[in-house]
Amino acid sequence: MTPARGDEPDVLANARLTGSDRTDPFGSEPVDVHLVDGIVVDIAPAGALPRRGRVLDADGGWVIPGLWDHHVHTVQWALSAQRVALGGAASAAEAASLMGGAAALPDGRRVGGGFRDAFWPDAPELSVLDAATGDVPTYLINADVHSVWLNSAALRREGFEPDATGMLREEPAFEISRRLNAVDASVSDPLVARMAQDAASRGVVGLVDLDMSWNEDAWVRRLGAGFDALRVSFGIYPQYFDRAVAEGLQTGDIARGATSDLVRVGPLKVITDGSLGTRTAATSQSYPGDPHNHGLLTVDLATLVDLMSRATAAGIASAIHAIGDVANSHALDAFAATGAWGTIEHAQLVAHADIPRFARLGVGASVQPEHALDDRDLTDTVWAGQTAQPYPLRALADTGANLLLGSDAPVAPLDPWAAMAAAVFRTRDGREPWQPQQRIDAATALGASTRGGSEEPARIQPGDVADLAICEHDPLTADDAALRGMRVAATLIAGRLTHVA
To answer: Could you say which DSSP state residue 103 is in?
Structure first.
């Protein structure tokens, strides 16, 4: 057959198998993978069984379970395509200048994203931004999304009183992000569709959507308009939690009114502390030069326990944002007190005594390995005095924790191959590996990039749902460059092609 997106091949011919804990006898020899009604029904040596129906020639490519990104802010990531990229700005003045030269969006605002101000030589000042941007409302979103820099026109438009910096942090910053993301569906949905197709071209079959909105209606609308590129598990934030419980939503349920089973209810998402970049992650040791700053716990333990208890009773999993070691300890305490199930999101700084608690409590560690490389210099500086372990991937894996890899897009691009490379090699751009003792092996990284995480073998066998990808190299033996540059020939969801190279 000449494959096309939407086709449902009956045979993936001349493929090779890889993965962890394999029980098949084929080694690296080519096989045919036979599919019926979206299920893998047989795997046999290439040509050993009749190739009936539609045949997709894998041409020696490696077939793997379809990949998942376990932490995405979908609309914000999609909208970044039309926002000014500020990741290269080396100073506040340069970021302001970039925004001053940018065109306004149709709604009259300038929006940029991705700045990292921790090492800027100059502090953000409202007067500098105003001088560069004038009367056009202008918004600069930090790479970690925990702070937003606004000019006076934007502050007036949003109803915030200006101060000398124009910088909003934590909940006020999240409120600005929610407003900026609340664009008309005629704008956002095509961008989401384009983002999803790009993800499918990387072998992604699913993601956990943690947009800060009521996500069910948006996804049902997209499905009704023909969206079919990804599986989606959508999060529920505390401001929508009572509604979700009242309306009977439970984790794993198909979205109500959905035209397919691609979209399902996900976890309750609770943000309990800040971030490393804004120096608001809740830590046991103070931040350099600021002995009274231990970050922020934005949700106290009693409130967190109450939320998670109610979620568990309602059949809703919990996804708890915890970056600093104090926040991670509180989140683990809440899991222990409530019997909740789910994940800690980020787990960037974890007390040594807390590392084995993830596995003991059955709490998944939803981590973003590219952040370790983005933040390596910041970690070595801002967290130099911390006694807890930063980015403890290997330590978590060694104690039996279930790792689930993601991007936190738009904080890092939605690219599971980059996440795997960062986890396995702990380096990028030719630099020496950072804390190489925290590398994980490639089989663990591949498993952590699939739906069930690292606790489930990353292999293909009869009886599996045919959520698959065919890639050019064996992920278990690829080097850093090969992983980061991995080309995917085809991606399938339940046997249906969502991407063909």
So the answer is: P
